Amino acid sequence: MTSNVGPTVRRRRLGQELRRLRQEKGMTAEEVAEELMVSQSKISRLENGRRSISQRDVRDLCRTYKVEDKALVDSLMQMAKESRQQGWWNAFGDVPYSVYIGFETDAASLRVYEPQVLPGLLQTPEYAEAVISGALPEAPQDQIAQRVQVRLRRQERITDPLAPLRLWAVVDEAAMRRVVGNSKIMSDQLDYLVRMSHEPHVTVQALPFDMGSHPGMSGQFTILEFSDESDTSVVYLEGVTSDLYLEKLSDVQSYSMMYEHLRAQALNADQSRQFITEMAQEHARRHQEESEAAPSG
């Protein structure tokens, strides 16, 4: 029941096991909450892995479910202990999307659709800072710098020599045309995107405007997949004040089908590199024109 995974996935696995025990006992979350004199929302958060699970929580739940298998109880208690270990992101303080980072850290592959900005795992430091500054106009500089550092730390999964993250990104033309920071930043960013697309575990597909309407017009989404079959895929939808994680098989299948349509409508890998290169050249020409037009004094 345990393996070399981070605390987020451990909490998720433990929550799934606790849900299974509750269902085998034939109890509702409301009934469990009433017996333990806690809120129903606490039971739900424990079972979906969004809340830290203490060994005391596991002990109380196992007693409620009358689990007599001591080896199982001991295993669940150990999982609870390990799930409370801190991930690398805790060293950066309060990171608002730490649940997602935990999933991403343990994922084997990501399928990403980005309609507005270039994928975070493929951003240059300059582009990342400009994106975060624009998204958080009232944030102090130290908070922006912290988020940039977290983003760069996340990118280490792409270059991990032992277990590189498999990344497939479909990127809308709008994300390539939008001038984030300035034209020089955009030119450098798109050149970097092309270079990264040559990595054997990275695929980038461009989705030009002239492809017309497509299933991704409702917004950005990420599908996270894991190497262990017991860890079902997760669809991540980023929000302004809260994020959404979809784990039902029907939801994952719906988004997976959407992604297949997006990949089919997008340019292939070679065509995408050519398209992105031309975009980079457009930004470079604009930067040159702006530099020549700028006052010399």
UniProtKB/TrEMBL annotation:
It comes from the Bacteria. Residues 18-72 form the HTH cro/C1-type domain. One of its GO terms (molecular function) is DNA binding. Signal peptide: none annotated. InterPro entries: Cro/C1-type_HTH (IPR001387), DUF5753 (IPR043917), Lambda_DNA-bd_dom_sf (IPR010982). Coiled coil: none annotated. It holds the Pfam family DUF5753. SMART domains: HTH_XRE (SM00530). This is Transcriptional regulator.
